[in-house]
Write a structure and sequence with these properties.
The chain has about 240 residues and is an alpha/beta fold. The chain has helices at about 5-20, 30, 35-45, 60-70, 85-90, 125-135, 155-160, 185-195, 215-225, and strands spanning about 55, 75-80, 95, 110-115, 135-150, 200-205, 235-240. Helix 1 (about 5-20) packs across helix 4.
Length: about 240
């Protein structure tokens, strides 16, 4: 088990927030700090103390944190290479990989994978991507996946108002998508099982944050009492180990 004290995380996250190599606008990261801390802490609890090979699907913030906190060897996989030069300046490897359409671009295996707020953007069944990731995990390797909960209050309100919930569902291409599909806990668990994982769990959680838009802030305030009921919590957190 690794150590992760509050001061060490504060320093690493402050360094992350000050960098200009990420895709999102700067205010995004402090707003969603609780999610970054929760997933990083889960890795600390589950991983051995020696440095690991860590793959971050998406922006690279988790690979950055793991590198700064424990000296892990971080790699970022994304659909485009727009931020790769900046990532490499930070000591992170980076590869182009459209995980919705392609097998891994290199023959490498890793000890841990972060798939945070990504699976809901992929216009393919989740198990297709999860199976690709399972194949590159070393025995005992860890996959941490976070995604919005289908039953969150925002979606209930959108349905009542007749608003479109998701982006169009198209064949995988070379562009990014919005949310094309969100999962319930049961549906996400089925995807992990279908992908060949035998050691996995899906939790309903709420990562505390202040939403950006006024409507979402109002919905978050209204939804806090519902957070006592697991079904309606804002997020799902799935953790799996490779056998």
């Amino acid at each position: 088990m690794r150590e992760l004290d509050a001061d060490a995380f504060d320093r690493a996250f402050g360094e992350l927030s000050a960098r200009a190599c990420w895709q999102e606008e700067p205010g995004y990261y402090p707003r969603y700090r609780s999610r970054y801390e929760a997933l990083t802490r889960r890795l600390a609890v589950m991983a051995p103390t020696q440095p690991l090979d860590v793959l971050d699907i998406g922006g690279g913030q988790f690979a950055f944190l793991a590198q700064r906190l424990w000296g892990d060897r971080g790699c970022v996989a994304d659909i485009s290479d727009g931020s790769f030069a900046s990532l490499r300046e930070e000591g992170l490897d980076a590869v182009v990989w459209n995980i919705a359409a392609d097998d891994p671009p290199v023959c490498r295996s890793v000890d841990a994978i972060f798939l945070s707020e990504v699976i809901e953007h992929l216009p393919v069944p989740g198990h297709v991507v999860l199976e690709r990731l399972r194949r590159i995990l070393r025995p005992g390797g860890i996959l941490l996946c976070s995604t919005p909960n289908l039953y969150r209050l925002r979606n209930v309100v959108y349905l009542l108002r007749g608003q479109q919930l998701f982006d169009v569902f198209d064949l995988p291409g070379v562009r990014g998508y919005g949310h094309v599909l969100e999962y319930s806990a049961e549906h996400l668990a089925w995807q992990f099982q279908r992908a060949g994982f035998t050691d996995y769990a899906v939790e309903t959680v709420s990562f505390e944050h202040t939403p950006h838009s006024p409507l979402d802030r109002a919905l978050a305030a209204l939804g806090r009492p519902l957070g006592r009921m697991p079904r309606y919590r804002e997020n799902l957190l799935a953790i799996a180990r490779a056998s």
